[in-house]
Each structure stands twice: as C-alpha cells, then as structure tokens.
[FeFe] hydrogenase H-cluster radical SAM maturase HydE
Amino acid sequence: MKNLIDKLHQENFLSAEEFHRLLANRSQEDEEYARNLANQVRQQVHGNKIYVRGLIEFTNYCKNDCFYCGIRRSNREAQRYRLTEEDIMTCCAEGYELGFRTFVLQGGEDPFFTDEKIVHLIQEIKKKYPDCALTLSIGEKSEESYRAFREAGADRYLLRHETADPRHYRRLHPYEMSCEHRKNCLRTLKKLGFQTGAGFMVGSPLQTIDDLVEDFLFLKDLDPEMVGIGPFIPHKDTPFAEERRGRLEDTLFYLALLRLMLPHVLLPATTALGTIHPKGREMGVLSGANVVMPNLSPVSVRKKYMLYDGKICTGDESAQCRSCLSGRMQQIGCEIVTDRGDYKKK
Ligand code: SAM
Ligand code: FES
C-alpha cells in the first residue's frame, strides 16, 4: 500500500477505488509510513508552528437531536446553560492575555441566539480585538444569516459534515436533518469567503469503508481551509450509549491521509483524540495535525458541555490548559504561536 500513500503524497489525490483499496488493506506498517510522511509534510509546510484556538462553548441548548451527541435536545439529563455577552467577553479577555489570537464561538443550535444577537457579539469581539480572528461553530443557518455573520466580521466557520454518505447520515441524525443540506451549507460558507472547516467522526456507528471513501472525496472536492476529525465517543444518555468508540489508530491514519491530500489545511488534534489517549493530541500532531483548541469556557460550565463521556479539561482553568498544551507541544519539538494562524494560500 506504500505506493498509494506515495501517490497521495505526490499527487494529493486518489480515486475512489484507490482510497478503498488503501483503507481496506493497509497494514500497521503502512499506517506508520503514512504518519511519518504526513509529519514531514506538516514540517515542510508549517515548520514547527502549532496554531492555537481558544474555544468558547457559549450555549449547550440545541434544537437538534443528533443520535450521538450529549447535548441533543432529547437528553433530559443535560443541565442547560447559556453564557451572557459579558461572560463571553471575559473569556476573550482572558484568552487574549494568554496569547490567543483566534476565538471560536461554539454552541448547540440555540434559537435564543438570534442572528441579531450573534451579529452584535461578532461586532463587539471584533471591535475590542481587531487583531484576532473569529470563528463560528453554530450549525446550519440560511445563506442570509451566514452573510450577515460574514459582513459583521466573522472570519471562519466550522461545520463538520459528520459523514458524506446520505444513508449513513440518516442513521446518525433524525429525519429533519439532511446530508445534502449540510453539504450545501458548507458550499455557501465557502462562497461567502469564510475560511471553512468540514470534517467527520471516526468510527461512528455503522460507518463503512465506503462511507470513509466518500468523506475523503467530498473533502477533496470541497477543498476546505480547515478539517476537524475526531473519534466518536459514546455518551451515556444518548441512543448510542452502548456503541463502541472510534479507534486511535484509525484517527491518526486518517489525519495523516488528510495532511497528504490537503498539505496546507489547518488540521486540529482534537479534544476527543486527547480523551481516548493521554498522548492523543501529541500523536495527532506527529501524524500531521497543526492546530490545538484548548478550552476558554468558564470552568463552571465546562462539565455541562459534555458531548461524550470522559471529556478532558473540564476541571481546568484556561491558563492551565494553555500552559499544559505548550508543555505538551514542546515535548514533541513544536511550539505554540501567538498568531491568527490564517489559512495560507498555495
Ligand atoms: N452545533 C454545532 C454543529 O452542529 O456544528 C457545533 C457543536 S457540535 C456539538 C460540535 C461537534 O461535536 C460535532 O460536529 C460532532 O462531530 C462532535 N460530536 C458530537 N457528539 C460527539 C461524540 N459523541 N463523539 C465525538 N464527537 C462528537
Ligand atoms: Fe487542558 Fe491539558 S489541555 S489541561
């Protein structure tokens, strides 16, 4: 399979048949080969720089009911919260002090936060921190809403497609959601000039190799500036409570393939990866990832934004998380940089 890994490295592309062959037949040795190659590409393109994003989880109310997610609307056990504008500005102030130059506002799809409220928040943050990038991760909205957010100054948008296969999508989401709509949202975000992030869960229930092939081909076609992937991890109060979590080795291998396919992409070593293995994020970086996203949310709400069981960093202060990650990155010869860390054009 090394020939296919080399081909992906050289041509940044494989056909569906080639992806299928690689995913179905790779050995442990092939995985290691891909990871080392991806690590080299990361170093060639991005040096030893790791970009840092301050994640502010500002609401765990959600109108959606995704079967895998701990903050789905049907989970009556979830203790719901919303941060006020003042709370959010305090998180940004703390983050700025700690050297963050990107803030990510993430939340469930919470109708309380109308477009007007979001626009106002964007304007306030961008007015106070003009040297910072602002990323939104608040789900599926209309083109008008996305345009209003962009015009207010938001720079980036994260919306994982979760799975590119419509049949698989249907097994993970209730009927009112659709794969095509989510993909269209991503295309709209790109059109409006957002640095756009898509991505999928690794090892989500019923995921097949064909589904993964579609994920890679969809990402190649969309050509996003950011890709977020992480292992699926069950949450005890969801329909998928008894399902198996995604594998570490698979996640690292797919991170490596993404780096080889999209050499310039901003690719986080996710919290979910750090949750399934104590060195998961370090291994993610050594497999091609170049972004980390420590939590800036107030400690008082962190345990409530429980997307899956065992989520790490829910008891730590932002400063602790920041210095913990600096130390972790230093240990593997990398350095967290104080920089907006925008996508660099080829
Ligand atoms: N509501 C926004 C959205 O839909 O994009 C952002 C919040 S959503 C909770 C953020 C991401 O969490 C999802 O895109 C999904 O991939 C991930 N996630 C949710 N439940 C998960 C689980 N059980 N295991 C791993 N990742 C999960
Ligand atoms: Fe949060 Fe290590 S990153 S404590």
Notes: The radius of gyration is 19 Å. Residues 2-6+27-337 form a domain with the TIM Barrel fold (CATH 3.20.20.70). The first helix runs from residue 2 to 11. The CA atoms of residues 76 and 292 lie 31 Å apart.
